[in-house]
Design a protein that fits this description.
heterodimer; A: 202 residues; alpha+beta; five-stranded antiparallel beta sheet; three-stranded antiparallel beta sheet; 10 strands; 38% helix; B: 477 residues; alpha/beta; 2 domains; 21-stranded parallel beta sheet; six-stranded antiparallel beta sheet; 15% helix; 39% strand
Chain lengths: 202, 477
Amino acid sequence: MVSAFRRRSLSKTQAGFAITELIVSAAIFSSISLGLLMGFTSLERNYVATSDFSLNHADEMRISDYMAMDLRRAIAVQPAENDTTIFIPAYYDQTGTPQTPALDGQGGVFYGASGSSVRIHYYLMAGTIYRQQDSAPAQPLAVNVQDFVFDVTDAGKVVTTRITFNPTFNSGGASAAATTATAFYNTTLLRNSRTDIQSSVY
Amino acid sequence: MLRQDSTKTGSVLVWTVLVIAMLSLIAVETLRLVTAKYQNALQTSTWQEALLAAECGIDLAIVELRKSLYPQPNYAWEGWNNPPGNEVTGYELTTVPNAGLNGTPMTIETNVDAPSQLIDPTNSWQYYRIRTVGTIPITGPARASDNPQDTKLRRLSLHWERFTDGILAPRSLEKPQVSRRIEAIVRPVSAFDQAVMSVGVVDLKNQNIVVDSYDSTDPTKSTNGLYDAAKRQENGDIATDGQLIDAGNAQIHGDVATNAGTVSGAANITGVERTDFYQEPIPIGAPSWADSSTATIDGTTTINAVATQGSVASRYTFSSISLSGNKTLTLAGNPNGSQTYIEIYVTGDISVSTGQIVVQPGVTAKIYFAGNVDITGNGVLNSNNQPGDFMLYGIQPQTTSSEHVNFGGNSQITASIYAPGHDVTVNGGGTNGHVYGSIVGKTVTMTGVSNLHYDERLGSTGVINNYKIVSWFEDNR
């Protein structure tokens, strides 16, 4: 009897303790799970934003380097926001072979036909920034960049490009200050005399 | 009790493993992202440095071209396989240790040639073509960027190099590197590229001085090849290798440039003020053709210019020229006024006072002088009225001596003066002093009412003083 009573008594105690324990442990589990979920969600969001920022920065750098390369050898520039045209000498012939230049009689030289040039058009369309050389198919430089803005400031002898995007760290959208902070600048010295304005080589 | 402990321990272990696994996944992905980013940044930096290397090659070539302008021995093209010429490519390979990223060597391959198409028919000046390839090793693995557009832009040579001997000719590589290629065309620059150029101070003494320009070859910028105030141009530039231009509020229709110096009295300058000027003046040596003549010109004399274009100029050597009391030295050409050429070397001084040097029509004269020059009154009659037809070249004096060139006393002179070792003074005196041409001196001083009218045509005549890039192109095939 004693032992049976003890067993029942022990069972009741044990049963009641198990319910409490269950509730407590469930609460703790829920809290921990919620914390972990929030933590991982935050980490994941942060990771995506960081990854996005990193990719966008690489895109900025690529676009900037492309434009700087063309600006260095430019002979004329038509700047506009998200739509800039650069003219470079017609250095290559139809087969892509470099040509020997000829004197222009004014102290300069030209490649190909006198007055000829190659038109390079940079523009943003449908979330993609393209580089198009004359009438060749446009080459996408960066995709999914609908939030990009590239601006070109023409100071004659030097041209400055500025590229920004909207970072996604804040779910409410990027502030103006955050967008400004992404600005990628490049100031390029134009090596050639320009045909569109009065300028000299360095 | 033991079973309960064992269960709890197992639960904790599972949680721990799960958390570690998730954190590890995040860490791995972050590391992958950072590594790719780092690699991209490293390759981009190396790519940028390769451009610097290629542009260094242009500088190296221009240094050699400039050396070749100096009197012999000038040691130009030493260390190169050939001096460049038509169908002959001068080649040099320079390696600068530790100049690249992470202490890598910078390799600069420079090729220079002189195609016959690049000879200016108006003055026979040769333009040179410089092709350079700058190369920097990549210190990371031979791994291309994730983005194909990066690969198209920054053409890394991971296993194959694109350029060999300055042209597109692929070859295999043992280690990855970046190469960039530039082609530049340089043209000669005349010593008379500015209205006034001084090694030291330029001092314009008062506001009555006028410096402007015209172009004797352009009827919209001159009248019958002569200066016309109504067609005045704004290229009367003044420059100094020194730190001071005292413009004295003179009327300067052009730019002024110093070598990191200052410009005072700049109220009437129409152009811009620059501080980035430096052009080392090439010294003039004694002509190699000079003889040991000790003849002095001090009476009325006529010497003949009979050489025509393409032949060696008629040449004379004198110990001095001293003309006074209406004595003249006539440089006579063909009676029909056709173009003839004469060169005179004066080993001593030139002094013209109440006398005159007469340059007859059609004669182009160059006078080399080793001493001082003093010309007053209308001491030079240049019948062609073209400053390119009467050029005075000052032989570089010893550093211990002080030589001068003075034009004074209501003088009107059409001439170009290149004397970077002489102090040059233009003293307008009276009310009507005019110099048509260009002045290069150790120092340049203008006083009184002096008018200097720079003929822009001089920029393509006279002695070559430098080389200037007129075309630049990066070949990114």
